[in-house]
Design a protein that fits this description.
The protein is of the alpha+beta class. The protein contains 11 helices and 11 strands. α5 packs across α9 (about 295-325) and α6 crosses α11. This is Putative Phosphotransferase.
């Protein structure tokens, strides 16, 4: 079993050739199209770039995804574990084909220019779930999140069974080495890089032992299809539907992972009562498909422990993106994700040891 590091920052991408794009739109699409404009879109923390292609005579548009390296798909930007299958296909297109069979809302791929590393995709618009909820009233916010939960239930149930050996996600999993790599990522960047010094050996040993215990708990659960970044900036509100993007790092993991990613989000904080109701909706949705959890208290404990792992990893990742990719925009979200961790550490007496040895090094946990 191997665990690989995320890809190093790529050199700046040269802009795609407008003439090539215009010709592709005119000759390779499943419809007749004439390009009238190409607008760069704000990027995320990835090495990909995105553009919107305006089309003549229609308000519809296309999204152009530009890969950092046409062959770069062989290296995930996230650490992966257990990838025994030979990677001979772009993970985005591989996972997309699988998800299209589940009935969830994912973008249609109109054309993939392999030579240039350009993908021509359906446009879900610019409104993320995070933006849609920013000024929404309570009823609208809950309604949007209920839609996101319905999509997640479908993603998990139909994405997991029947198994799809041709989908790369089924050859990667959140096992103990990967979960521990993510914990270590937090220690490296969320503590050592932030403080400029390592933890004391006794604290380091105690914290790693507690992390190991959580990793074994999560890895020991039944494995389901996991998007891995199912949060409010990867869900697009497109009219009456919610579209799912950024799924290329999908793998197998615990049923709580995507739920914790959505409800303990780095970018929007939900009231506890809303979270409780959405967790119940998720469990009701699984039960409707014959996959219910008899012990809901046990599920909630697992959800909270998953949130600890996910949010610590996010905090470390945000520092990494600042220090290594020179992109500081995620630093402002660190207090929120560590706030979730602090509340969960206080909620469970069995985590007192972890809190005792970790909090002195993290101001937000004190």
């Amino acid at each position: 079993m191997t665990t690989t590091n995320p890809a190093a920052p790529a050199a700046p991408l040269a802009p795609p050739d407008p003439a090539r794009i215009a010709k592709t739109v005119a000759t390779k699409m499943p419809f007749r199209g004439d390009m009238t404009g190409l607008t760069p879109l704000a990027g995320d923390a990835s090495n990909r770039r995105y553009f919107r292609i305006a089309l003549k005579g229609t308000p519809s548009a296309l999204i152009l995804m530009q890969l950092a390296d046409p062959e770069g798909f062989k290296k995930s930007e996230e650490a992966v574990s257990g990838a025994s299958a030979q990677i001979a296909e772009l993970p985005f297109t591989n996972v997309l084909a699988h998800l299209q069979r589940t009935g969830v809302t994912v973008p249609q791929l109109h054309y993939y220019d392999r030579e240039a590393g350009l993908l021509y995709l359906e446009d879900f618009g610019d409104l993320t779930l995070a933006e849609a909820c920013r000024d929404a009233d309570h009823a609208r916010l809950v309604a949007l999140y209920r839609q996101a939960i319905d999509q997640l239930v479908l993603l998990q149930v139909k994405g997991t069974k029947p198994p799809a050996p041709g989908c790369i996600a089924f050859h990667r999993r959140f096992d103990v080495p990967l979960l521990m790599w993510e914990f270590d990522h937090f220690l490296e960047y969320g503590i050592v890089a932030r403080l400029g010094q390592p933890m004391k050996p006794a604290d380091d040993k105690a914290v790693r032992a507690e992390f190991q215990r959580i990793a074994e708990l999560l890895a020991g659960q039944s494995q389901v299809f996991v998007h891995r970044d199912y949060h409010s900036r990867n869900l697009m509100v497109d009219g009456s539907r919610i579209g799912i993007i950024d799924f290329q790092d999908a793998l197998m993991g615990p049923a709580t992972y995507d739920l914790a990613s959505l409800l303990k989000d780095a970018y929007i904080e939900l009231d506890d009562a809303v979270v409780d109701g959405l967790v119940d909706q998720f469990l009701d949705g699984l039960a409707a498909h014959g996959q219910g959890w008899a012990d809901r208290a046990a599920f909630r404990r697992l959800f909270d422990f998953t949130s600890i792992q996910r949010n610590l990893k996010a905090a470390g990742r945000f520092v990494y993106i600042d220090r290594v990719k020179h992109n500081p925009k995620f630093l402002a979200d660190i207090p929120r994700v560590l706030g979730y961790v602090k509340r969960n550490l206080s909620k469970y007496p069995e985590l007192a040891t972890l809190r005792q040895h970790l909090a002195p090094y993290v101001a937000e946990l004190q």
